[in-house]
Model the fold of this input.
Amino acid sequence: MDERILVATRRALHAVAESVIAGPQYRADGTIRLKVTPGGFGGTLSALRVEHTDLVWRGGRAPLAGTCRQLAEAAGVQVGPPEGLYADGSGVGPDEPFAPDPIAVEHLADWFARGDAALRTLGDPVLWPEHFDLGVTADRVNYGVSPGDAAHPAPYAYVGPWEPRRGEFWNAPFGALRPASALPDADALAAFLAEGRAAAERDPAATG
Done:
């Protein structure tokens, strides 16, 4: 898939997650936690969700196109990210237009679904709106899947111990990373996470 199309679609989905779902949910219910849902993602307490190429709410839906402000107005919520909780985010303003590519949307939805299934071997995954990654923390180690970011534009899985480790498994500054292209299904992804858990228990701290 063309990287530019994938990145543009990821930014659009991140913006909707942050400014149309997580922000309004936080203002109403005090939590920014999102979750993977069939065909996309949604709030843990809010009824708003992305289902394939639509934003869905109780009694209505709208295509994922236009701007976050327009989508929020259609859904009857106040646009904007959670205030005062984090400095990063999607970088997409409320009036920046977007038009996610349908094939890229399905590609990312499949990656999140694969990640959700694999991460449930470790706990209950949370989709965080700050970096738009799905993760679980267990025994001071972060496990997760990302749809991509500035440093790694393509989707990837990661294992990030709170205390860095030394050893062959660890191939990134924060821990270990595997591209989604090397993890074709939930079983392969779960195996990578299990390998990371074993390595985190086995390998010495990088500063030790």
The beta strands are 34-37, 40-43, 49-51, 54-57, 60-63, 126-128, 133-138, 141-146, 156-161, 176-179. The CA atoms of residues 26 and 61 lie 21 Å apart.
